[in-house]
Amino acid sequence: MLCLRYCSILLVFVLWSTVDGRRLSLFDVRIDHYKVETIQDLVINTPRPRFSWKIRVLDNVSQRNVQQTAYQMQIQSIKITQRDNQFAWDSERVVSSQSIHVPYTGQNDLLSSTFYRFRVRVWTTNSEEPSEWTDWIQFRTPIFNLHEYLTANNALLWIGSTKINMNELRKEFMVPNASPIKSAIAYISGIGYYEFYLNGNKVDTSRKLDPGWTSYEKRTLLASFDLTANITAGMNAVGVKLGNGWYSPEQHGKSGYGPPRLIFILSMIFEDGNEIQVLSDQTWTGREGSIKHDSIYNGELYDSRNDRPNWARAGFNDSLSAWIMPESMPSPLNSS
C-alpha cells in the first residue's frame, strides 16, 4: 500500500509538470514602450522596434521563482493588395531571459506605411513546454522620412498664404463605390498648430497642440491617422484649421519661419487593389476663419461672425467668405 501511495503521488507530479507551460500567459505586452492593449491604432515610428512583456502564472498554486529561459517572436506583414509582397520573420527559439526591449533582429528593416502583426511565446524554468502564443497584435509604420517622400512626390506641396491669414483650408474628394475601402491612412503636419476635420467631425478629440514643438528647420513632426472606418463612398471633405503656435515670430523673435502652412497625404487602398491619393496642393481652398489672431501667451482674437458651421463638410457653399487658392510654400525643413 505504501508503494502504491508514493507511486500515485509521483504520477500526479509528472502529469502536472507536463502541462505547466500551458498555465502561463503573457501580459503588459509593449512595442517601443507603447502598451498594446490600450492603443487602438498603434503606430511604431522605427524600422527596428523593440518588444517587452511580462509573465503571469494562471493558477493559484505556489509558483514562485518562475523565470523565462527562452522566447520566440514572429512578425508578419498584413497584405493589403495583391501587389504587396508578403513579409514574415520568425526569431525561432532564442535562449534568453530578456523580456524588456527585446530587439527585432530581422535581416531587413520594416517598411514605412505598412501594416504588420506580431506575437510572442516563452519558455520558463517550470516546464519544457512553451506558453501559449499571444494573440496577434496589429501595428503599422508611418512615413519614416518625409523629406525623401516629398522628393519622390512632386505633386505634394506645403500650402498656405503670404497674402492673407489663411487659417482654414478645405478639400472635397470623391470616393467611388466600385470596391470597399481596405485601408485609408492620413498623414498631416500643420505648423504652428492644427486641428484636423473629416466630414465635419474632428478626427481625434484627444490630440491637442499638434504637432509638438521642434526646431522646425531640423525636424518637423508628422502625425498619421487610420481613417478606414470614417470615409464613405461618394463625396467627402477634409478641413484643417491652422494656428501660429511656437512657429510664430511672436514667440521666438525670428522672422525666418513665416506664416503657418500645411502638408497632407491621404492614401486610400481598395479591395480590388486600386489606390487613390488626396494630397495638399493648389486644388484646395483657404480663407481667414473666425480666429483673427492667436498666440500662446496672448490668447486669441475671435470674430464669431466668421463662423461657418459646415465648412468641413462635403457640399459646403459659402457666399459670404472669400475662399482662395493657397500658395505653394517652402518646406520648413532645411534639406542641407
What do these coordinates show?
Residues 1-19 have low confidence and may be disordered. The chain has two domains: 24-141, Immunoglobulin-like, CATH 2.60.40.10; 146-328, Galactose-binding domain-like (Jelly Rolls). It has three helices and 22 strands. Helices cover 9% and strands 37% of the residues. The chain is elongated and about 75 Å long. The longest helix is centred in the N-terminal third of the chain and has 18 residues, at 2-19. The chain has helices at 2-19, 146-152, 249-252; strands spanning 24-31, 34-35, 50-57, 68-77, 88-90, 94-95, 102-103, 115-124, 137-140, 158-160, 168-175, 181-191, 193-198, 201-202, 223-226, 234-243, 261-270, 275-279, 285-287, 291-295, 299-302, 327-329. Strands 10, 12, 15, 17, 18 and 22 form a six-stranded antiparallel beta sheet that branches. Strands 4, 5, 6, 8 and 9 form a five-stranded antiparallel beta sheet that branches. It is mostly beta strands.
